[in-house]
Structures are given as C-alpha cells and as structure tokens.
Amino acid sequence: MLTPYFSAQVLYKYGTIYRQIINVPKTNICELTKIIKTNTLWRGIYDAAQKVMPGVIHECPYNEYVAKDISLNDLPIVSHFPQGDYTVIAYVYDSSDSEYMVNVSLVLTVHSPIRDSFG
Q: Where on the tree of life does the source sit, at the highest rank (predicted)?
C-alpha cells in the first residue's frame, strides 16, 4: 500500500521566459480530498484531473494506479487563469522522504476570456 505524495509548479510565459506563479509543496495526495472540498482552485484542478484520469485522486488507501490513453483535448482548465502559455511540472513520490517516482511536464496554451497576465 502506498502513501503517495505530490508536488508541482505552474509557470507562466512572460515574453520568452517562464516564471513560477504557483508552487505546490510536497503534499500527501490522500489529504487533497479534504482540501478539494473547501478550495475553489483545487476543486478546478481536481475536476480537470478526473476528466483526464478518472479516479486518480481519491481517499486512501492507494494500491496502484495505471494511467493510459490520456487525452488533453478539451481539458477543463480552471477559469481563474488568463490566456497564455503555461508549463506544469508535477512529481509523484511514494513517501514523504523519497525521490520522485513519476515526473510529468506539460506545456499548455490556455484560451480564456481573461486577457490580463500575471504580475
């Protein structure tokens, strides 16, 4: 049985460079189900994750999760983000003190009615 942890960074493209706009420290994935109920941003991320990988975030215990045939087309991105280019870097760990098991990097272009930028 795993006690999975997760950390992530979201970077927003300013001109030709990316700057960090969100940093998620190493967090117990099992605890996310509690945070999702009270935090609008996490709720949006949860909804997007459920559409792409159903069941990836759930209450413990975690035994195994296999993701395959993932499509990012029409991914419901949280409406709080302005239009632009983003990089999302996420890590999954098998415990709080281990090296990462999975590293996922996504480069996304968000089309949004929000035309402002961060900063």
A: Eukaryota
